[in-house]
Specification:
single chain, alpha+beta, six-stranded antiparallel sheet, 3 helices, 11 strands
């Protein structure tokens, strides 16, 4: 191999490494600057709709999320992990209240729409407000599914399936690790 070829390869790889570093810095800057505004429906502690608010999207680095969340919460919400069936603290919770995003506090589900799905995960037939969740196509594991995220922080919540009860026929199969339960009427 000639010296000129060797320098050419080194230069090529050095350029690739520099481009990757610049891309990483730009992505980090984009995460922390230029916050987007999203619309969420707000609720009081009793679950009454207060109105639609325009709020800043919550964007944090992985290091910031790790300070806020425990390892399971971080894996589920930030890396689309899934807790084992039957292990989540809300899988069999029958108390009356609201389920909020563990990352940003956005109200996501009302216990009035929770049902026993037999899956081992908390299941709801609808979100408290459609505006508060995002649904995205998920093609992992060679399956086509619909992932559900919090609209304000993009925290992964779980998946929605079309095998739920009336009135919607939907099953929002959520991870307890992505939720925080607040008894109705308590802030």
């Amino acid at each position: 191999m000639s010296i000129q070829n060797n320098i050419g390869r080194r230069g090529f790889f050095a350029t690739l490494a520099a481009a990757a570093a610049v891309t990483k810095v730009m992505a980090a800057a984009e995460k922390t600057q230029g916050a987007k505004i999203v619309k969420v429906v707000e609720f009081d502690a009793a679950g009454n709709r207060k109105g639609v608010a325009e709020v800043e999207k919550v964007v944090k680095t992985d290091a910031e999320w790790k300070k806020q969340l425990d390892p399971m919460q971080f894996d589920v919400t930030r890396h689309e992990g899934t807790e084992r069936a039957g292990t989540g603290k809300y899988a069999y919770n029958h108390d009356d209240g609201l389920y909020n995003c563990i990352c940003c506090g956005t109200t996501l589900f009302d216990s009035k729409t929770k049902f026993e799905s037999g899956t081992g995960w908390p299941s709801f037939y609808q979100p408290i407000a459609k505006e508060n969740v995002l649904e995205k196509t998920d093609m992992t594991f060679g399956m086509r599914r619909t992932a559900v995220e919090c609209v304000r922080c993009n925290g992964h919540l779980g998946h929605v399936f079309d095998d739920g009860p009336r009135p919607t026929g939907l099953r929002y199969c959520m991870n307890s690790a992505s939720l925080n339960f607040a008894p109705r009427g308590k802030a």
